[in-house]
Automatic annotation (TrEMBL):
Cellular component terms per the entry's GO annotation: extracellular region
Keywords: Secreted
Domain of life assignment: Bacteria
Descriptive protein name: DUF4214 domain-containing protein
Predominant location: secreted
Alphabetical list of Gene3D superfamilies matching this protein: Phycobilisome linker domain, Serralysin-like metalloprotease, C-terminal
Domain DUF4214 per the UniProt entry, residue ranges: 42-110
Pfam families the record matches: DUF4214, HemolysinCabind
Compartments reported by the entry: Secreted
Single annotated GO MF: calcium ion binding
InterPro entries to which the protein is assigned, alphabetical: DUF4214, Hemolysin-typ_Ca-bd_CS, Hemolysn_Ca-bd, PBS_linker_sf, RTX_toxin/Mannuronan_C5-epim, Serralysin-like_metalloprot_C
Length: 691
């Protein structure tokens, strides 16, 4: 086998409708390896005796259609047939180029059926060729009779998984028939053949052989006394009458195939692990399978799955009867089930289909499984496990919880109608950090993160977000939200001004250390003045207004011309690049540190307590070694002053307000305890009195 094996098999299938013979495959693999492609191989096939025998005298339309049937298991559609015939008639393409083009088009087709048909045929052909591995088999397959048997076998492979499974199951018997076709009549062993059994109204006992057998059920013919054994192969029970009950004892039957549009019933105990499929008809109506669970409080039908699909748009749906009235612990089938629980605390696991599950009155636990499920809690405090696909969850009355053990990308993109009357999203048991994004939800929801680093985002309602352990990130702040970061270093991330955050009350932000707006596309306003804990606030690269809490804050403006108000605590203010303003008013107790004071930066003194400071001559820069003790060595005229004071003993520069010009009486306030690592200044002109 080399890089060209699959493409050479496609050529054998397209031209001749059969798998490659081992010797031919090896020869053409070497040819393709030398050429670096299969173009010469495709051209050589058109000169072979087998090609001439098959296509001599055929029109271009017949040749194109035969290639479609061989390779894609269907006739050419009118538009495609017209196109390819036109290319051949005009000599724009040779047949060899046409075959390669159709192979490539099927491989990249948006029509999944073509891709699956070609892929299934190639898979079957590869296995068949590999299994022809004795001298007797190789010699027999080189004959016309042997090739014809293989061609018939491969023609049964289509786009369905069941057709490939059937071909795989019958491969060995097919090779046996190939060998038998070359033996003298007296040496030919009796070959097993597929058997069709037609059930009667009596008690039937039928046993198939190693082939793909078929059991045909008409109205009233499948009864409790029937015993059907498929034997080897891929065996099908074909039910051709609506209203039939699937009874009897079924052994080694791989698929139950039902007529589209019908209604059927079965006892759960009789189903086992069955695959169901549609009859291949033009009817697009759904099949309904009524499953009698015989009042069992516990049952598992997870192995009952949908097999081969029939007409486009049709599907099998399962509904349940005789459901127990006691508390249930059930696992539904994979058909797409409709199930209603009891009035007790049920545990209901959906399957792979699109389920409709209603919990009933108790405190139920419902898991939809994969598929687009419609889950209804009913009364009681219900728990919904996971959120997969296009689910719709309606909690009903009570306090209802959606439990996550990992991030659900489907939940994070769900619209508002997909999550209704669910009060809690609980990821506390997740083993790794989760991302929960409820930005499309309008109801207020309590969200509980894991013990790891989570990313939690509420919606338009009044959400309660709890991070738990780990360094958590909360995204945005809408409505009257509350955030409890839990342990760790936790961050509120803003991409724009949040009016709701600025209006929030003390206690709305608990165990939250950081507010980060560094990724905002425009300047932001962050006002935490109503809050008591200290925060580290990071502004954007634009013009921001940052107002701290009553605690000891760190405010970082970033780029842009920022306005920073520290508040009552001993704050650290870092304007960053740009012409920044550090504002003080009646709510400011002082003792702040301003870092990297630079050109264009200002200190604004706002409000009545600073009104006695004359801008012209009551703002002075002085120095000394007094360290705020025993006076500053400056003669005052009795008025209020703002002093930029450099302590020569420590080298620190401070901003000091003297309310009465008598510093020796202790009548001063240290607004800025240090201009730390100042780039330029400050100088008296950098201090502004703002009414």
């Amino acid at each position: 086998m080399n890089d060209y094996t699959a493409d050479i098999q496609k050529l054998y299938i397209a031209y001749f409708g059969r798998p490659a013979d081992p010797n031919g495959l090896a020869f053409w693999e070497a040819q393709a390896a030398r050429d670096g492609n299969v173009a010469a191989v495709a051209k050589a096939f058109t000169t072979s005796p087998e090609y001439q025998a098959l296509y001599a005298g055929r029109t271009n339309a017949q040749i194109v259609d035969a290639i479609y049937v061989n390779l894609l298991a269907r006739h050419a559609e009118p538009a495609g047939l017209q196109y390819w015939v036109g290319r051949l008639d005009s000599n724009a393409l040779e047949v060899s180029s046409l075959v390669i083009a159709i192979m490539s088009a099927a491989q990249n087709s948006e029509t999944i059926a073509d891709r699956l048909a070609m892929s299934n045929k190639v898979a079957a052909a590869l296995q068949f060729t590999a299994s022809v591995d004795t001298a007797a088999e190789i010699n027999a397959y080189s004959t016309n009779a042997g090739a014809a048997i293989a061609k018939t076998w491969l023609a049964g492979v289509t786009d369905s998984a069941s057709s490939l499974a059937a071909a795989t199951a019958s491969q060995d018997s097919t090779i046996s028939r190939v060998v038998a076709s070359t033996l003298p009549p007296e040496e030919v062993p009796p070959a097993p053949r597929p058997i069709t059994f037609t059930l009667t109204t009596g008690a039937d006992t039928f046993t198939g052989d190693s082939e793909n057998d078929r059991f045909v059920v008409a109205a009233g013919t499948l009864n409790a006394g029937d015993a059907l054994n498929g034997g080897g192969g891929y065996d099908v029970l074909s039910v051709t009458a609506s209203g039939q009950t699937l009874a009897g004892t079924l052994t080694s039957i791989e698929e139950i195939r039902l007529v589209d549009g019908g209604t059927f019933s079965a006892a759960a105990s009789a189903l086992g692990k069955m695959a169901f499929g549609h009859m291949d008809t033009k009817d697009t109506a759904d099949v309904t399978l009524i499953i009698d669970v015989a009042s069992s409080a516990t049952f598992d039908l997870s192995g009952v799955t949908a097999g081969q699909e029939g007409a486009a748009g049709s599907r099998i749906r399962a509904v349940y009867t005789n459901v127990a009235t006691s508390a249930l612990n059930v696992t539904l089938s994979g058909l797409g089930d409709t199930f209603t629980g009891s009035a007790n605390a049920d545990i209901i696991h959906g399957g792979a289909g699109d389920d409709v599950i209603t919990g009933g009155d108790g405190n139920d636990t419902i898991e939809g499984g994969t598929g687009a499920d419609n889950l209804n809690g009913g009364d009681g405090d219900d728990v919904f496990v996971g959120f997969d696909g296009q689910d719709f969850v309606n909690g009903g009355t009570g306090t209802n919880t959606l439990r996550l053990t990992a991030t659900s990308a489907d939940l994070n993109t769900a619209n508002d109608a997909q999550l209704v009357l669910v009060q809690q999203v609980d990821a506390s048991t997740a083993a790794v950090g989760v991302t929960v994004n409820l930005s499309s939800q309008s109801e207020g929801i309590s969200v509980f993160g894991s013990a790891q680093a989570d990313v939690l985002q509420g919606g338009a309602g009044n959400d309660q977000l709890s991070g738990g352990a780990g360094d958590d990130t909360f995204v945005g702040f809408e409505g009257a939200d509350t955030i409890d970061g839990g342990t760790g270093t936790n961050t509120l991330r803003l991409t724009a001004t949040s009016a709701s955050l600025n209006a929030s009350v003390n206690g709305a932000l608990v165990n939250l250390q950081r507010v980060d707006a560094s990724t905002a596309a425009a300047g932001v306003t962050v006002n935490l003045s109503a809050h008591s804990p200290g925060f580290t606030v990071t502004g954007s690269a634009h013009d921001d207004f940052l107002s701290g809490s009553a605690g000891n804050d760190v405010l970082m403006g970033g780029d842009g011309n920022d306005l920073l108000v520290g508040g009552p605590g001993a704050d650290t203010l870092i304007g960053g690049d740009g012409a920044d303003t550090y504002a003080y008013d009646a709510n400011t107790e002082g003792g702040d540190i301003i870092e990297n004071f630079g050109a264009g930066d200002k200190v604004a003194l706002r409000g009545g307590q600073f009104s006695g400071i004359n801008q012209a001559d009551h703002i002075k820069a002085i120095s000394g070694a007094n360290a705020y003790n025993g006076g500053f060595g400056y003669s005052f005229d009795g008025g209020a002053y703002a002093l930029i004071y450099t302590d020569t003993a420590t080298g620190k520069t401070s901003l000091i307000i003297d309310d009465n010009g008598n510093d020796t009486s202790g009548g001063y306030t240290v607004l800025v305890s240090e201009f730390k690592t100042a780039i330029v200044g400050p100088v008296p002109g950098d201090i502004q009195i703002v009414p």
